[in-house]
Automatic annotation (TrEMBL):
GO cellular component: membrane
Sequence ranges assigned to domain AB hydrolase-1 in this UniProt record: 28-279
A molecular-function term among this protein's GO annotations: catalytic activity
Protein name as it appears in the record: Pimeloyl-ACP methyl ester carboxylesterase
One Pfam short name: Abhydrolase_1
Gene3D superfamilies xrefs: alpha/beta hydrolase
Length: 299
């Protein structure tokens, strides 16, 4: 696929960098990545969708790529309310009318948050890992020993030692996670290097560390987002048409998320891909087909 130029647009707190694929009058799709990935994760997905008439927007989330905070005074928050609001504000800035939003990892969380809090602005949802809204109270309690072991990076980031480790190893640590989370994906160094450039963002370490400390209840919320987090703590059900996806070989999601079905009260189906964590790059056709399923429901 031909490399797309990075575009930038301003919202209340960010200058958001994004890749745009397809015709400007296509049906709108926003694809949201997570950690430690970037907007290039969706290049092959975007190619499939644009052939079906979509206009695809793939932003670099806060702390990644050329996305920048508009002021030193804006908190470098990585909490879900911030990332969900970023999705909505980007859609508004680009005048995307009820787009399908689709994401994985942090991006799945951001898209679920946007769909739960602003359903009138969202046409449909594709979410990797089911109902991906963080329950901080639950995160304060232990998981199984096997899952705690897989989540070693989250525990590392709770300390200043972990911040230093990420700052000094911002390529090697993510490369380890790619290998661990997608055990059967044979990515090449060029693929990783293309994304790793996004980790040079000056706010990368602060946003990543805040995300995982917030998730574990070990740091403060952005006070401007408390109202949103209070609503999310009530576990609002998602009403927009949704396809949820699991990766059968994802060590972060043992057993999958089929039991989340009750959290989706609109049209919903759940699929399982023969992949690890990074479905958009491991199986782009599966991810694109999920978006196309939602699009066909909406027609």
């Amino acid at each position: 696929m031909t490399a797309q130029p990075v575009k930038i647009i301003s919202t209340d707190s960010l200058q958001i960098a994004y890749l745009e694929h397809g015709a400007s009058d296509g049906w709108p799709v926003l694809l949201s990545h997570g950690f430690p990935y970037d907007a290039h994760s969706f290049n092959e997905v975007a190619s499939i969708l644009t052939q079906a008439g979509a206009r695809v927007i793939a932003p670099f989330t806060r702390g990644f790529g050329e996305t920048r905070f508009i002021s030193a005074d804006v908190m470098r928050s990585g909490q879900q309310g911030a990332r969900g609001r970023d999705v909505i504000q980007l859609c508004q800035a680009l005048e995307l009318k009820q787009p399908i939003v689709a994401g994985f990892d942090w991006g799945g969380n951001a898209c679920c948050t946007a769909a739960a809090l602003w359903p009138e602005q969202i046409g449909g949802l594709v979410s990797y890992a089911g109902y991906d809204i963080v329950d901080v109270n639950q995160q304060r309690h232990a998981a199984t020993p096997s899952l705690e072991r897989v989540c070693w990076y989250q525990h590392l980031f709770q300390s200043e030692r972990g911040r230093e480790c990420l700052a000094e190893n911002r390529y090697e640590l993510p490369r380890m996670l790619w290998r661990e989370w997608s055990p059967d994906w044979q990515f090449d160094e060029a693929t990783f290097a293309r994304t790793a450039k996004s980790f040079d963002n000056p706010d990368f370490v602060d946003v990543v560390v805040h995300t995982y400390r917030w998730m574990h209840g070990h740091t403060v919320n952005d006070p401007t987002l408390q109202r949103l987090e209070d609503r999310l703590a009530q576990k609002p059900k998602i009403t927009v048409p949704t396809v949820t996806i699991d990766g059968a070989n994802d060590p972060l999601k043992p057993g999958g998320t089929a039991d989340h079905a009750g959290m989706f009260i609109g049209q919903h189906t759940h699929i399982v891909a023969d992949t690890g964590h990074n479905v958009p790059q491991e199986a782009p056709q599966v991810f694109a087909d999920a978006v196309l399923t939602v699009y066909n429901w909406l027609k």
